[in-house]
Amino acid sequence: MHNTATSPTAQHALVLFGHGSRDPLWHQPIAALAQTMAERAPATPVRCAYLELSQPDLPQVAAELVAQGIQQITVFPMFLGVGRHAREDLPELLAQLRLSHPGLELRLMPAVGEHAQVIDLLASIALQAIADR
């Protein structure tokens, strides 16, 4: 049995990054995704962080993960469209985090809406709704 504290997976975390909302119901899909991911890959820490209107924010989550010994964080933007937040605000946040945590490796994935698999799945769900009428 290997020690997860020293395995590469244990030193790597994934952050689901959303816009945020004051409405607590808005958070449920992202929290459900984080829960599913934690069940599928229990050795990989999965956290949620938000740009605005919600807590925790990305700097807070990054600081907590670094304090836990995480050396690499992959940020997965939960945006269907790539607007100003994904194009400008998030890269700026990552630049600030790199200054605050120089030993931390930060990786930014494309926004969820840029993945062909997501587009295909959403199309299937929408078309199935018509077929079920």
Sum up the structure in keywords.
133 residues, alpha/beta, Rossmann fold, 4-stranded parallel beta sheet, 4 strands
Could you explain the architecture of this structure?
The protein is 42% helix and 17% strand. It is an alpha/beta fold and 133 residues long. It has a single domain, classed as Rossmann fold (3-Layer(aba) Sandwich). Helix 1 links the parallel strand 1 and strand 2 (46-50). 19% of the residues are buried. Mean pLDDT is 91; it is low at 1-9.
Strand order of the largest sheet: 2-1-3-4
Q: List SSEs in N-to-C order.
A: EHEHEHEH
Q: CATH architecture, please?
A: 3-Layer(aba) Sandwich
Low-confidence stretches: 1-9
Oligomer state equals: single chain
